């Protein structure tokens, strides 16, 4: 006897890599980055509504596999993400990810999606959100050090959200920089390749460090950072991995996502335990001051936090309704009589 | 320009509910239960090879959503599982699940599968594995108290692995019992419905309690348990939820999966912190004694552990190669140049 069609509750909408790319094209990447920045900011403003479970990491010689769950009491979300710096040498992604949303009331999943692209978008959106509150007013120039898989997303978020017009690129591998230059050729931005990190930061109001490899641990030294700059450090994101010289942190005011996690994973792991930081949500919520004056150096010590993924997942779910850019996965066994799981199997013969 | 086909590494084999049901029919459910029992036992014998991260639970008023990860250093696995006792009243499953395997060396997922059916199978297999070492020799009769979604799987595992021939059913809801009777009508077993738990346990060498609702907290009282019996308690599996009267535990020798987890979630949460238990893997590995004599009461205080899911996932992955019972999910963004994630998106327009 053929199996009966599963009930609608058995289906979980799945967004493939192909459909995610189409969704970004459909919405427009700059619109999507801007809307996602707003979505993350909305969730950061209701920070205390979230169950902030620490991420669960499984470390190995070659990398780490992490599960990042959170919940706002109505919706539960988590991301599976790996970090394997050596992967690039084998033609693989350093970071791949997928994510899920579920209904807290029933525990049933309601969305599963690729999240490698979505993580690049949400990381860029989180950077732009921080810069919107911490960078000098009307910034024109971004220095981007590290021109890997995240580079163009970071650039376009700073354009879409802050109106940046000029970009100065540097990477220890010139091929990474030329790849980024080429990909941004139709972006309407003035983009140039620089021969050193020192050259790249000249005249920039925002400096973003975005490198993956553990072995280049001091991307920025103290003398490279002038007064009034905003630094967005997104590459130092696990224990033993940092990008900035500690002296920079002594001159900067540092903002973080979730202090207990950043103390372990962020740039501040090189500082004393009482090194002062401000959680970014407090700035967004008016509880703490962001940029104070035009000579202040601000640092967003970004490691990536589950709430950002949650916001991105909910954003994608909301956009899916109209586009049909998903498949229904028959992932949840849902017999007519919930106690008759075995009968459902028997009748599927 | 149409998108290029993703590389093979971008594809993750996905086993739907329908394909899982076909896989069970293809292998034969009793063969599958027996082979899965052996697979779990093989993994329990190499217990110290596993990274035994505690499960990560997100509790709400109506239930819990859990992530259960583990790794043996070569393969990583996790299960997403919810537990919502009220779901049954709304026509939903109390427990739904899906699972994933990934390659530790790269972090790339290699299998994603429905796991509601697979959890029922692995839970039954784990029960049979424990009973194989703890129950009296050549048991003929199983008493099964609680005849919900797990019932038939438990029965068939005890038949396949231990050769049980007679089954005595009881549930506070007679409809659950008649559902189970009907589903087992072609099983070759002598199955009867009993009017009480007390009646069900008469003459049974193995008593399995398998109830879901938090409000019926004492399924077995002390006077119902005779000498020489093996008890398999699988329904008490979260804080505040137990099935056995504490006096039974005072007479029994208790075996557990992973002591730190069972102290919080199992029957032994009602006992003092120094109540003695034996981790089951030590019995399988010859480090501790299982059943000692024919009058001993043995108790497997089962709460479900990530290693059991890992074994089940690896078993399914091995069986998939020949059957083709999976779909390839385009879940991992895998551009030709791993640093050119953005270029992959651009070219997909």
Using a beta-carbon cutoff below 8 angstroms, give the protein chain pair with the largest interface and the number of residues from each chain.
A-B, 86 and 86 residues
* Spatial strand sequence of the major β-sheet of chain A: 9-8-7-10-11-14-12-13
Q: Give the C-level CATH assignment of the largest domain in chain A.
A: Alpha Beta
Overall morphology of chain A? globular
Task: Give the C-alpha Rg of chain A.
Answer: 21 Å
How do the SSEs of chain A run, as a string of H and E? EHHEEEEEHEHEHEHEEHEHEHEHEH
What's the oligomerization state? homodimer
CATH third-level topology of the largest domain in chain A? Rossmann fold
CATH architecture of the largest domain in chain A: 3-Layer(aba) Sandwich
The largest sheet of chain A, given as strand count, sense and whether it forms a barrel, is: 8 strands, parallel
- β-strand amount of chain A: 15-25%
């Amino acid at each position: 006897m053929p199996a009966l069609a599963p009930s609608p509750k058995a289906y979980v909408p799945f967004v493939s890599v192909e459909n995610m790319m189409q969704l970004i094209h459909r919405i427009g990447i700059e619109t999507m980055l801007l809307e996602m920045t707003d979505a993350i900011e909305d969730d950061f403003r209701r920070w205390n509504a979230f169950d902030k479970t620490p991420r669960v990491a499984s470390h190995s010689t070659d990398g780490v596999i992490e599960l990042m769950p959170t919940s706002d009491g109505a919706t539960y979300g988590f991301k599976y993400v790996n970090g394997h710096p050596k992967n690039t040498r084998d033609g693989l992604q350093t970071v791949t990810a997928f994510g899920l949303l579920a209904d807290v009331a029933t525990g049933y999943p309601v969305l599963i999606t690729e999240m490698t692209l979505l993580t690049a978008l949400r990381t860029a959106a989180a950077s732009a959100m921080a810069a919107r509150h911490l960078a000098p007013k009307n910034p024109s120039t971004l220095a981007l050090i590290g021109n890997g898989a995240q580079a163009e997303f970071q650039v376009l978020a700073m354009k879409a959200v802050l109106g940046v017009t000029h970009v100065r690129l540097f990477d220890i591998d010139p091929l990474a920089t030329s790849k980024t230059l080429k990909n941004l050729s139709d972006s309407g931005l003035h983009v140039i390749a620089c021969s050193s990190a020192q050259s790249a930061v000249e005249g920039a109001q925002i400096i973003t460090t975005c490198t993956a490899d553990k072995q280049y641990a001091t991307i920025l030294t103290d003398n490279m950072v002038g007064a009034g700059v905003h630094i967005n450090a997104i590459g130092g994101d696990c224990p033993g991995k940092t990008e900035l010289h500690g002296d920079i942190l002594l001159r900067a005011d540092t903002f973080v996502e979730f202090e207990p996690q950043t103390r372990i994973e962020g740039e501040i792991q090189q500082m004393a335990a009482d090194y002062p930081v401000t959680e970014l949500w407090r700035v967004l919520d008016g509880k703490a001051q962001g940029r104070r004056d035009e000579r202040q150096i601000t640092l967003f010590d970004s490691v990536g936090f589950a709430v950002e993924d949650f916001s991105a997942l909910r954003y994608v779910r909301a956009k899916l309704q109209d586009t049909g850019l998903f498949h229904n996965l028959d992932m949840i066994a849902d017999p007519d009589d919930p106690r008759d799981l075995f009968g459902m199997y028997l009748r599927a013969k």
